[in-house]
C-alpha cells in the first residue's frame, strides 16, 4: 500500500492482535519493514530473558505502552506464535516458493539471507547513491 514505515508498524500491530486472537493472516508484500518486524519479534523470542523483558522490548519496537495490560496480554500471546515467511521467485519459467522463515542474514542461501531479494535491493540503492557521491567528490 506504500505506507510510511510508521503506518506499516500500525498495520502490523493490528495483524499481531488478530493473530493473538487466533485468526490466520496471510500478508503479501514487497515491504522490508514487515520482515523487519517479524525478524525482530523472532529474534527477541529466541533470547534468554524473562517474558516481561520480551514484552517490554516488543512494546518498544511497536511504540506501544508496555504497562497496558491489554497490550501485554496480546504480546504474551504473540510470543507463543510461529511465523512463516516465504519468498516467491522465477526459475526456469516457473514461479517457485521457498521458506525463508529463519530470516537469517548469515544464511548461505542468498534467498534466505537477502530476505527474498528485498535486502539486496535496499543495499543496491545505498551502494548506487554512495557511488554517485564518490564520483561527485572525485570530479
Account of the protein in words:
This protein is mainly α. It has two domains: 1-83, no CATH class; 85-139, no CATH class. Helices cover 56% and strands 9% of the residues. The chain has six helices and two strands, in the order H-H-H-H-E-E-H-H. The protein has helices at 5-20, 32-46, 51-62, 69-78, 110-113, 118-138; strands at residues 86-91, 94-99. Strands 1-2 form a two-stranded antiparallel ribbon. Strand 1 and strand 2 (94-99) form a beta hairpin. Helix 1 crosses helix 4 and helix 3 (51-62) packs across helix 4. It is globular. The chain starts with a helix and ends with a helix.
Entry summary:
With 139 residues, the chain is mostly helical.
What are the main properties of this structure?
139 residues; 2 domains; 56% helix; mainly alpha; single chain; two-stranded antiparallel sheet
Any chance you could write out the topology, listing elements then pairs?
Layout lengths: L4 H16 L11 H15 L4 H12 L6 H10 L7 E6 L2 E6 L10 H4 L4 H21 L1
Antiparallel strand pairs: 1-2
Amino acid at each position: 500500500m506504500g505506507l510510511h514505515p510508521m503506518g506499516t508498524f500500525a498495520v502490523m500491530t493490528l495483524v499481531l492482535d488478530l493473530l493473538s486472537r487466533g485468526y490466520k493472516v496471510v500478508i503479501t508484500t514487497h515491504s522490508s519493514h514487515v520482515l523487519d518486524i517479524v525478524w525482530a519479534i523472532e529474534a527477541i523470542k529466541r533470547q534468554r530473558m524473562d517474558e516481561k523483558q520480551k514484552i517490554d522490548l516488543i512494546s518498544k519496537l511497536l511504540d506501544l505502552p508496555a504497562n497496558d495490560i491489554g497490550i501485554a496480554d496480546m504480546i504474551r500471546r504473540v510470543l507463543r506464535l510461529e511465523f512463516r515467511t516465504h519468498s516467491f521467485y522465477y526459475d526456469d519459467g516457473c514461479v517457485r516458493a521457498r521458506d525463508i522463515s529463519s530470516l537469517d542474514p548469515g544464511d548461505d542461501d542468498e534467498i534466505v539471507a537477502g530476505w527474498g531479494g528485498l535486502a539486496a535491493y535496499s543495499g543496491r540503492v545505498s551502494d548506487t547513491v554512495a557511488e554517485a557521491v564518490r564520483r561527485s567528490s572525485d570530479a
